[in-house]
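re: that complex we talked abt at group meeting.

here r the seqs, copy pasted straight from the sheet so there may be weird spacing, ignore it
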Amino acid sequence: MTAINIEHLTKDYGNNKGIFDVSFQIEEGEVVGFLGPNGAGKTTTIRHLLGFSKPQSGTSAILQMDCWNEAKEIQQHLGYLPAEMAFPENMTGTQLIEHTAKMRGLNDRKRAQELIHMFNLDPSAPIKRMSKGMKQKVGIVCAFMHNPKILILDEPTTGLDPLMQSVFVQLIHEEKEKGKSILMSSHLFEEIEGTCDRIAMIKQGRIISVMNAEEFKNAEKTSFNITFQNHEDFQSFQQEHFQISQIQKGSLQLVIEIEDGQLNSLIGALAARNVTSIREVKYSLEDNFMNFYKGEH
Amino acid sequence: MFSKPLFIHLIKSNAKVFSIIAGALTLLIGIIMSVFTPDTMKEIAQTSMDAPINPLGDISTLVAFTANQYFGNFALIFAMIYSIIIGNKLIAEQVDKGSMAYHLSTPITRTQYTLTSLIYVVSSLLALFILIFGAGVGVAELVQPGELPIDTFFMLTAGSFLLHLAISSITFFASCLFNRSSYSLALGAGLTVFFFAANMLSGMSDSLEVLKYTTIITLFDSEAIIQGGDYGAQLFILVGLSIVLYLVGVVVFKRKDLPL
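got the structure back, here u go
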């Protein structure tokens, strides 16, 4: 069954702002990253999924329910973590979590306690006094406490320290194993790279690419950063038929991109020369991302 | 259509504003009922006899004084402030600050949210005027038994409640209409303050009397209530206005895009 189904969703705010003909699907049990720079339309798309905005044309549905007309029913199965967490004023974290549980008609506080423990959170302080990271943790507890089937997380690790970020990644893996469907928006590559099955990229309100995790993890090409001992070897190596993507003359360094089949000829070419170091450059989503955004930022 | 946990949340989160306003108004009615005994009234009437204009209006009886000074002044201003603050806070401020996203990400429809808020505003205003009525009658009976005509005082309280119901419907409607606190206040508070000013000016000189048709405050005709004149139709207009504005507000909020 399709967990989230967005079809030809369009909302034009004028001046080329908004989203245009956005379509993508998230199957049950799938984790999808939603990537794009600020102002690309991530939050606008999420607004429609939560029923805050009415589509100009096209539809968005969660669990086959229309996001605009059946927002209440959808909320039973949805956990939402907004990018900018704004809570009602004058409450402590504990009161807020309790209020959220009551609004959801939730009697079981076991999951909430687990999450509080997991993120090492002390929710007894007034929310006004909390740091950004603490507020984010309260938001995470509120979004996950009712064991929702679908999770929509807008830049979820904002404000969390690296330790808590890895706890969060672990939480996503756990939820994924339970079969949850997750849409996670971000402008950070690391946040998405390790957790997502697929990645949808959005630019200027249009989806420009949807790819599988395998596609960018096992890219056919591998990059190596090679440093030579002397200038002659550095120069002569450039005559060989390798695809060179970067040259740094001063430090006698260059970066080459080769297909796995070329590996033997590379070793052969390097064996005849004096090499100081050779390192593999991890091909990351970031490079891919940059390719899409180059010059248009 | 009604959410009990949300209602309880609204009572808690607005308890401070409510208790300040309710406390001040209860105290004031208590003071008026205990200080203005027939003897004091006579004294004041005598001293102000020589003055060219009587700033206190009709003060010949306790109930007339209450109508002019309390319901025409203190209660009017305080309850207006309450309506302006609460009306803006319940909807527009939540949207402006973004916490509406939190409320709406629980299983609740927008209509449930606005209707529960509406019920909170109406019932808190009702509680406010019940407190005023109770305190007024209680203190008057204790200090000067028999001096306060309770049925007239009841009608004054009820009329004043209906006026403030209408004012709150204006601020609530403005709050539903706009996504920004500043716009909501500009319309809600702006209109309310205009009504207040027009009401004051219309009483000052004959040439400004025409202003009384531009304000809804004159629809609460305390003079007619005291003298047994016709006041029912005007109060009925206030009720009608309240119902229309409240319901239109709910519908507008249900249909609009929220920048959350």
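couple things i noticed - Chain B has one domain: 4-255. Chain B touches chain A at residues 3, 5-6, 9, 13, 94, 97-99, 101-110, 112, 255, 257-260 (CB under 8 Å).
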